[in-house]
């Protein structure tokens, strides 16, 4: 059913989009070409209307390379400049001879630029260019390799698999919640999105600097009007100046607003935020937390609390 819907949506494009080859129209949610909604069957009109109303789109702080490589390269939804590279001899050759359709296809071709003895000449005799002349019937492999690199360079930081990504700093791919689920493009769609997209990725290099180490962390909880109906609680985490793990946390209203809630939330947050291979020497002034996570740990775990990798010191 999905393929039929995609084909119908791609068929009813406005005059401004008529120059786009049918073979590269993959999915309107993944590419920047438009469709004439009023010419579509009623159910597809409703689908697009509801999708727009409730903000259906690809969204996430970061995506795995597998997901990035699944994206169609032509008219990539996150790259406006890529439209300017859709035409020309090299792009036509990429589509027709090399059968380039996805970001992954483009990446494989672009990496051939690093083949030993490759040079930017039509008569290049490196192994990659020689193979492309034979398998793809390409007359100028060097130009097609250059065009593949140009296409990738138009992609924002978060969408280019050639860039360093957060996953490069994660020793275990299942470290962050939901990682096991987001395997395909369909897993990366979200609803009720709003506002501007952020297409840059966070600097995760600090993670590799702390992997395998044991870091000292100071945690604390506080509460105004503790015990009162108008109590407001918070939590704090401090490693050292300007460390990304530092936190100031407002305890959500749905949780009990108390000093002890702030204490345990601060410990919970640092245990989840630190890289998996990093040991934590947590300094807390809460005797309840220290005893709860040491002497009373088994009892707490039986009630649903799970902790690991933590050494607690009472100060």
Task: Give a brief description.
It is built from eleven helices and seven strands. With 315 residues, the protein is an alpha/beta fold.
Cα radius of gyration in angstroms: 26 Å
Strand share of the residues?
Answer: 5-15%
Work out the helix count.
11
Shape verdict: elongated
Distance between the termini: 63 Å
- Describe the oligomeric state of these chains in a short phrase: single chain
Most strands sheet: 5 strands, mixed
Reported CATH architecture of one domain: 2-Layer Sandwich
Number of strands: 7
- Helix content, binned percent: 25-40%
Tell me the structural class: alpha/beta
Task: Assign the CATH class of one domain.
Answer: Alpha Beta
Fourth CATH level, the homologous superfamily of one domain: Ribonuclease H-like superfamily/Ribonuclease H
